[in-house]
Amino acid sequence: MDRLSTLFSQFGVRAHLFYNGRLCGMASYDGADQRGHFHLLQAGSVTLRGGERKDSLLTRPSLIFLPRPSRYQLLAGEPEGAQLLCASMVFEGGIDNPLSASLPDCLVLSLEELPLLADTLRWMFVEAAAGHCGREAALDRLFELLIILLFRHLLDQNQLRTGMMAGLADSRLARSLVQLHNAPQRAWSVAELASESNMSRAAYAAHFRVVIGQTPADYLLSWRISLAQKRLREGRPITLIAAEVGYESPSALARAFRRKTGYSPRDWMKDVTGEGAELS
To answer: Distance between CA 93 and CA 196 in Å, rounded?
Structure first.
């Protein structure tokens, strides 16, 4: 059972290397670029400061993963500094896409704790140190691979306690969630989802809410509207989107869209793009 491929096929990630070198002093980020950030500390030490988090001093090779725009600072002592590889990233579907929304604001993990990522990390550090043609393009793609492997690690180690990723890591919920992700157009009932998980309807509904933090119906609505938003960004007509995400008509989708977001699809697109949108 592949718990991630549908998610990444719908909400893929693009990474862009923006720093490869030794940091001495302070680097500040204000979130204005509307991107998440991924930092790899290869050597030295660095302090992560920002938001409501306590300062974190990292003295071992580590990754810092901020899936959404965030205000923070990295501070490295002088003259030794910190050897860093840094990339910005954006998920398809905007900053509220289901993949990044399923994660905490910041993850900090020692590279020693990530054996699944070890080969890719070694490849990245060798590539970063060399002067080969296409180095930056290669590192962009390797960061994207690393993000997928990080999600795999989080699932395998069951490191998140609530939300979509926690549900996919739960042996009783994973199959039904995968089925729902793969077929959002289906008129899923709680009874059908419970059957996929070999649970009674009542037990399934209760367990789903505890682990994921939503009812099955609310989760299905959220997934469908996330898909609809992605397709609207791509310029697809709402008449086609409605059937693809499980609604019998554009007006039915528009009602569900407003119930979830507070906007009509047209007003939401205008807010996102700053322009009117042709939705027919």
So the answer is: 28
User: In terms of domains, do 27 and 120 share one?
Assistant: yes
The residue among 136, 156, 176 that closes a domain is: 156
Please name which of 41, 47, 126 lies closest in space to residue 84, comparing C-alpha atoms: 41
| Domains in the chain, number | 2
Residues 251, 269: Cα–Cα separation, whole Å:
16
Contacts (Cβ under 8 Å, ≥6 apart) of 112 = 60, 61
- Domain boundaries, position 202: 167-273
Task: State whether 129 and 191 are in the same domain.
Answer: no
pLDDT digits (tens, 9 = 90+) for 186-230: 999 999 999 999 999 999 999 999 999 999 999 999 999 999 999
Examine the domain organization and report whether 147 and 171 are in the same domain.
no
Output the pLDDT for position 244.
Answer: 95
Cβ atoms < 10 Å from Cβ of 189: 12
Q: Are 258 and 264 in contact (CB under 8 A)?
A: yes
Q: Residue 80 in 3-state DSSP? A: coil
Residue whose tokens read 């979130």: 31
Same domain, residue pair 127 and 16: yes
Tokens of 207: 């367990």
**Token code pair at residue 133:** 């043609």
Rounded Cα–Cα distance for residues 238 and 251 (Å): 9
Residue 21 pairs with which residues in a beta bridge? 84
Residues paired with 43 in a beta bridge = 83
On whether the CB atoms of residues 212 and 219 are closer than 8 A, the answer is yes
Instruction: State the residue for tokens 């910190």.
Output: 82
